[in-house]
Design goal:
single chain, 148 residues, five-stranded antiparallel beta sheet
Length: 148
């Protein structure tokens, strides 16, 4: 877990987000997949700045709204038009201790396999933190390979 968050926070082109998505029960994988697809749709529709308004406090502390919106949009636009998106995996992680990068809590990563209009496949990692019955988006990382 520590390695993931350290790499995630250190990458210069990473765009982070946070939006509230109502969970349909805290154990629902479907709710997480739907939340990931909803968040990516918001980015694609030019509403990345709106995502910041519902951001987790630790995200808002690190990123001003303008920078957040620009980084999020740039990250998503870096790979072009999407033909199809499917989920490739879901991982839940309980971080017991707060670190310099993230507070303790239950986190989930939804990995999307995204087929682009030009035939390439990229992967989008959408990360959440559970706050009560809400999963809040805490990160978005598009990448060329699934294991990056």
């Amino acid at each position: 877990m520590k390695h993931f968050w350290t790499r995630w926070m250190a990458a210069g082109a990473i765009a982070m987000a946070a939006c509230g998505v109502a969970a349909q029960g805290t154990e629902s994988a479907d709710a997480l997949v739907n939340a990931a697809l909803t968040a990516v749709a918001q980015i694609e529709s030019g509403r990345a700045g709106d995502l910041w308004d519902e951001a987790a406090p630790f995200v808002k502390e690190r990123f001003p709204k303008d920078r957040f919106a620009k980084d999020m949009t740039r990250s998503r636009e870096s790979f072009g038009a999407v033909a199809q998106r499917t989920w490739a995996g879901i991982t839940r992680i309980r971080q017991l201790d707060a670190s310099a990068d993230t507070p303790a809590g239950l986190y989930a990563n939804v990995d999307l396999s995204t087929k682009l209009a030009d035939g390439r496949t990229v992967f989008e990692l959408v990360s959440f933190r559970q706050e009560g019955s809400i999963w809040r988006l805490t990160g978005y990382i598009p990448r060329q390979k699934q294991d990056q």
